[in-house]
Please model this.
Amino acid sequence: MRRVLGVDIGTSLTKAVVFDENGNSLAQASAPSKVHHLRGGAVEQDFEQVVGTVATVVRAVSAELDGAVEALALTGQGDGLWLRDAEGFPVRPAISWLDGRASELLTAWQENGVTREVFRRTGSGMFPGCTAAIMSYLDTHEPEVLDRAVVAGYCVDAVVQRLTGEITVDISDASLPFIDPATRAYDEAAIEACGLGHRRTLFADPAPPKKVFRLGRAGAALLGLPEGLPVTGGPFDLPACAIGAGVRRPGDGILTAGTTLACQVLTTDAVYDREGEPAGMFLCTPNEGEFLRGMPAMVGTAGIDWACKLLGIEVAEVGPLLAASTPGAGGITALPFLATSGERAPFVDAGARAQFRGLSLENTRADLVRALCESIAYAARHCLSAAGLSGTLYACGGGVRSPEWTQIFADVLARPIVIPDDPDVGARGAALVAAEAIGEPFDADLWAAKSTTVEHQPGAAELYDRGYSEYLTSLDVAREQWSR
Model:
């Protein structure tokens, strides 16, 4: 039986899943990663601890198998900055995509036209936690760190380097913000616009599509796998989830209701409105000529976790509370922008902040929870509209494990949502790419066939259509306030 081991290195959790050729999960394991929230909006991770989680989960699933795997397929979190030396060891703690230390710099770039210039060239907006902003910040405040580094990359390619010895980067990771999607090469003028031309050597050349690496001696010893085992490094988690969920046709999209709200739509056209709002991402995929228009909003289950802590409830209580309120949340409306670093899609504003309006003594905590969940669903509609959704919509992530919240998403979006039965779609996508890369592709349609469809309710959809218009109006007013 053919088997591939997929590893998804998330921000707070690393998962390993072994898949057979029919897409069945044979073994799985997970291990938590530590996320350090520091002063000034800084968010960092210890690379050695993250590598340790990879070793833990790989060894755990390997112990459950009675045979070998054909390949190790890696995916994981994108953005941020993972600086390493020539041997793959960190020169400072990894800086997360959640990081907000470059917020003031990003605001200055918005005012002086840097973000718009980069967007015109690459189709990607920038936000405080993207590589360009963090590198520019370090170039001013920690230049000696950049001087010591040999490569400025991301989580997945950092792990690839440690396991294989290869300095590389997947084209999907490199897409934000310096890759021209039409040429799949760095746009040198975009790098210069961010003042990073003198740091150009830190950017690794993107690997060819479906590049296969080999597990080195040190990596084999760390993971307990055979030296020389084929290894693939990407795409990162957003496009990996799209592939694993079943996004195949132009116009199809995926909503990932995770820590953030990642919305993507597949397209074969690298043309975009260069004068539009500089936000979102234009991600290259493993298939040349195919792209994902990504709108990964900072809102998501992190906001639900905040609400649960504030209200003194468990996450398991969210579903019953949603059922205890009604569409419209008892008159409460909300803007869900709780991230310290603001918002990055479908607009970028480091000053974006949450609001709750319309509260009265008659409202309950069920109304508050529902208002927040409805506002996140409105944000999803905003993102998917900006990304150009026209086909089938798939969904994954912790948020859609709640039937009540999934129904809200379907009703707000006024369309059916297809939910894969296997929640580990990121690892699935990485495994599908790995199988194709080693020349023995799996049946992707067979893998995507196991799913559940949630239909929207026309009556609720009509109410939410009015609510969405009100949401956009409130957002316009709030953005004027934030700018002041």
In short: Residues 3-239 form a domain with the Nucleotidyltransferase; domain 5 fold (CATH 3.30.420.40). Residues 132 and 194 are 7 Å apart (CA to CA). Residues 458-483 form the longest helix (26 residues).
